[in-house]
Structure formats: structure tokens, C-alpha cells
Amino acid sequence: MKAVVYSQHGLPIADPASLYDADVARPTPGSRDLLVKIEAIAVNPVDTKVRAGSPADQPRILGWDAVGTVEAVGAGVTLFRPGDAVYYAGSIARPGAYAEYGLVDERIAGRKPASLSAADAAALPLTSLTAWELLFDRLGVAEGGGAGQSLLIIGAAGGVGSILTQLARQLTGLRVIGTASRPETDAWIRDQGAHDVIDHARPLLEGLRGIGAPQVDYVASLTHTDEHYAQIVEALAPQGRLGVIDDPDTLDVVPLKRKAASLHWELMFTRSLFETPDMVRQHEILNRVGELVDAGVLRTTRGEHFGTIRADNLRRAHALIESGRSRGKIVLEGF
């Protein structure tokens, strides 16, 4: 089958060898696996981080967002059958979705939203899972709750920030404050439903004071946490909660003590990496997100369509993500 792979980590994305087209063996499903014929994919920051920092002893397939049709199922599968349209983020411990076919455990796949095209649906799985788990599981906000409280989303124009903004605005009573640094990303975040947007290129505290919110109850720090950390601590209300998804070099929790504030890490791959007893929760979340999309409550966060799934287009997508100037999700479709 066709695939896009890397075999030498750390190469600059302009190097044609950083991602290249290849033919690889078609995988065979295990007991709980779906074999999916992939129709569309999306590109995430994790793709660029793995390519840059993870050695590969053989050509490795990246990509943890996919939409496709179930072609075959393992003997233990009960949730799907051949012919079902699915979307999923998959497991970082397994080959990814830059390929014609992929395997995914049924417990972390969901039914594709019927109202979306394959490309529009591909923008959602990884970021929806991350945002849902961050908001409801880690930060502990209740659906329908949060009235009179506020949430600051640092880096709200990215994939996770975009859907997190929608979830918080549509499913809670929180005042949603996003951060951006360019007019086009400011407009994007407001379009996702943010009540307010402040400039993260300027001091956060200055921006928060400017909108009459000197303290916030929750912070979702999605990028550059170490750069903003001191201001995050100051901006958090006493007993506030901080959720983090990025990779700061270090994070000193001691400054949180005085406010009895709590720190929560979110990694949507944890359930699949450790096959936790509640692993099927991701199947349930994706199904719920799909229902909300089909009901018109949520919408795709697709930013740009980069064409067919091939190495040169994926190198362009990686380059845009690495530039820090992407908005929403980059999707690719077909081979």
C-alpha cells in the first residue's frame, strides 16, 4: 500500500528525505482492531515532534487523525462492522495514518459525523479528544456548569484551542477568553465562540485587566507554557486550575501552593498507551462529538486543505505547523 514515511529523525522539513513516499505492507487486524481504508487525514504538532525527535529503526508512518471506511474487523470486535464510516486519532505506539490503510483499536474509534465530508471530519478526532478530556476530565468543569467563572485558553487559534473554545462556549456557562497575536487568528477565535480575545505577544495580565478579568478560574495552556507560566500563576484565582498539554522544559509547581491551585496534564494518548480500563471512553467521546456536530452545536475546525496525501504536501503541512502560524487544522484527502 502507499504510505508517507520517515526513516531519519531530525532532518529539516525542507529536506525531501524528511518525509518521503513509500510502498509498505498492508496491515492485518488483531482481535480488537479495525482495518480502515483511509480517505482523509489531518496533521498535528505531535507529527512534527515525533518526526524531529524520535529515531526510527525502520520507515515509520506518522499521522494521528484519520477518517475512512472499515474494510475488515478482528475476531473480538463488537462496536463496528465492515462498511462503517469511522474517525479516530489512534495510538502513538502504533503506525499512523499517512497511509492507504490503518489499524485502530475499536475502543478509540468513533462513528464519523454524517453531516461532514471526510476532510472536514478528519480535523476533529485528536483535538476533540484532547479538548474534551482537558475541559471535563482534567479541569473538572461540568457540562452546563461554570456560570460566573472564566476560562483562559492560551493558543486558542490552534487545533485544540479551536474546538476547546467551541466546547466551552456551547456546553458550559464559562466566560471564554482566548489568546492570539494576529488579526486573522483573533477573528478565527471569535468565530469559534470566544467571548474575548487578548494578545499573547503582550503581557497576559495587561490583556486580562483590559477586559475586566484580572483573575481567571481556569487556564488551558496549550503552547509556550514556560514562557507564560509566571503570569499564569498570577492570573489564576485562588483554588484555580491549570491544564497543560505542551512540552515545557521544566515546570515548577511550588508557586501554585500559595493559591492552592492545581496542575493537570492532558495527553489523549494515555488511555491507549496504557490500555486503561476506561479506554472505551474515547469511543464514547468521539460518538458524542459526532452527534453534536450533526446537531449543529459543534463544527469542523478545518483551516486549510493541502490536497492529496503525498510526501510533498505533508512536508508543506509540517512546515506550516513548525512556523507557528497555522490556524485550525490542516487536512489532506485521497491518494
TrEMBL record:
SMART domains registered for this protein in UniProt: PKS_ER
Family matches, as Gene3D superfamilies:
Medium-chain alcohol dehydrogenases, catalytic domain, NAD(P)-binding Rossmann-like Domain
Q: Which GO terms describe its cellular component?
A: cytoplasm
InterPro entries in the cross-refs: ADH-like_N (IPR013154), ADH_Zn_typ-1 (IPR014182), ER (IPR020843), GroES-like_sf (IPR011032), NAD(P)-bd_dom_sf (IPR036291), Quin_OxRdtase/zeta-crystal_CS (IPR002364), Zinc-ADH_QOR/CCCR (IPR051603)
Per UniProt, the keywords (alphabetical) are: Cytoplasm, Metal-binding, NADP, Oxidoreductase, RNA-binding, Zinc
Q: Care to name a GO molecular-function term for this sequence? A: zinc ion binding
Where does it primarily localize? Answer: cytoplasm
SUPFAM superfamilies recorded for this chain? GroES-like, NAD(P)-binding Rossmann-fold domains
Q: Which residues form the signal peptide?
A: none
Cited CDD domains: AL_MDR (cd08252)
Domain called Enoyl reductase (ER): residue spans: 14-332
Q: Which PROSITE patterns match?
A: QOR_ZETA_CRYSTAL
Record localization:
Cytoplasm
Pfam short name (any one) = ADH_N
Q: Which family does it belong to?
A: Belongs to the zinc-containing alcohol dehydrogenase family. Quinone oxidoreductase subfamily.
Q: How does it assemble?
A: Homotetramer.
Q: What is this protein called?
A: Zinc-type alcohol dehydrogenase-like protein
What is the organism of origin for this protein?
Cupriavidus pauculus
Lineage, top ranks: Bacteria, Pseudomonadati, Pseudomonadota, Betaproteobacteria, Burkholderiales
